[in-house]
């Protein structure tokens, strides 16, 4: 079976793939056999089985993906704006003389 990019599957389809992995694992298949039969990588099968062992059925559900929300920002809005102050001047100085821009 040819491998399919699981990132392009819907969350429901990803969950069904993980369930297939666990059903095969419970029937006694080893991880390499499961990977070949279902069309996943060995590491994806291993991660699914380990997550299931650790968290049960809840471990099969998709977690949050992507960049964290703004609550994890390190700078306040004021600090962020102060960092941007003078940025165009520093960029222009870099193109005039890179040594001067690094000294600032």
Write down the Rg.
24 Å
Question: Number of DSSP strands?
Answer: 0
Please work out how many helical segments DSSP would assign.
6
Helicity range of the residues? 55-70%
Instruction: Give the assembly state of these chains.
Output: single chain
Molecular shape:
elongated
Class from helix and strand fractions: mainly alpha
Q: What is the domain tally?
A: 2
Low-confidence parts, pLDDT < 50 over ≥5 residues?
none
- Secondary-structure element string: HHHHHH
The averaged pLDDT comes out at: 80
Biggest sheet character: none
- What percentage of the residues does DSSP assign to strands (E)? under 5%
> What is the terminal-to-terminal distance?
59 Å
Report what the structure shows.
The protein has 104 residues and is mainly α. Helices cover 60% and strands 0% of the residues. The protein has six helices and no strands. Helix 2 packs across helix 3. It is elongated and about 65 Å long. The termini are far apart. The relative contact order is 0.09.
């Amino acid at each position: 079976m040819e491998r399919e990019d699981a990132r392009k599957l819907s969350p429901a389809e990803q969950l069904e793939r993980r369930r297939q992995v666990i059903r095969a694992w419970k029937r006694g298949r080893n991880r390499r056999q499961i990977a070949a039969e279902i069309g996943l990588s060995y590491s994806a099968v291993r991660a699914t089985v380990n997550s299931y062992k650790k968290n049960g059925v809840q471990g099969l559900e998709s977690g949050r993906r992507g960049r964290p929300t703004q609550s994890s920002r390190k700078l306040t809005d004021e600090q962020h704006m102060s960092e941007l102050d003078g940025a165009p001047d520093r960029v222009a100085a870099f193109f005039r003389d890179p040594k001067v821009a690094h000294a600032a």
